[in-house]
Amino acid sequence: MTDRLSSMCRVLEHAAICPVGFVGETHPCYTIIMSKKVPQKAKDTKLVAHFTEWYCAAHHGSNPRVVLESQGVLKGIYGKRIPILCAECANYVRCVETRTEKCPKDPKPFCTVCDIKCYKPEMAEYARKIMRYSGPRSLFSRYWRQAVRHIVESRRSHKKTAP
Ligand SMILES: [Zn+2]
């Protein structure tokens, strides 16, 4: 039985945990496992990098912009959609990659609602400029789910800190 399951399914964990005993890529369990395989930190970094790319395209169009080279790119967190950025924005994204990677919180909250504030003031200001531009636009993009989660979590945390 186990042999049959593992040969049917490429994801062995699925075969082990599926309560129905069915395995295959169309099964809901499979989708859940696959989405958990991408860590939240990588998802957040990817989101920030693509937000930065939109901002960079709109504001730094006259600067030379090249495909990002970074640790995150080497780790494959951007998949095939590696952001194209100017030197300044590339520096910012590399900085975000390191900070996110080193974030001690698990699960990592959105940086705007975090109490640690590990960003330097100039980096926080850069982040604000990017969010102001790309935040509203993201609601109409493939990132709308994360954008909505961001709004909800920010509201919740503001309510908590309000007197
Ligand atoms: Zn730029």
Characterization of the model:
It is built from 8 helices and 2 strands. It has helices spanning 2-8, 12-17, 28-37, 40-59, 71-75, 87-102, 121-138, 144-161, and strands at 66-67, 84-85. It has a two-stranded antiparallel sheet with strand order 1-2. α4 (40-59) runs antiparallel to α6 and α4 (40-59) packs across α7 (121-138). It binds zinc ion. Zinc ion binds at residues 56, 60, 85-86, 88-89.
What key attributes describe this structure?
2 strands, 61% helix, globular, mainly alpha, 2 domains, two-stranded antiparallel sheet, binds zinc ion
Characterize the biggest β-sheet: 2 strands, antiparallel
Percentage beta strand: under 5%
Shape field: globular
For the record, give the distance between the C-alpha atoms at the N and C termini, rounded to a whole number.
59 Å
Query: Can you write the helix and strand succession as a string?
Result: HHHHEHEHHH
* Strand order, largest beta sheet: 1-2
Question: Stretches where pLDDT falls below 50 for ≥5 residues?
Answer: 1-12
The whole-angstrom Rg is: 19 Å
Structural class: mainly alpha
Q: Strand tally, please?
A: 2
SS field, number of helical segments: 8
Mean pLDDT: 79
Tally of distinct domains = 2
**Bound small molecules, deduplicated:** zinc ion
How much helix, percentage-wise, in residues?
55-70%
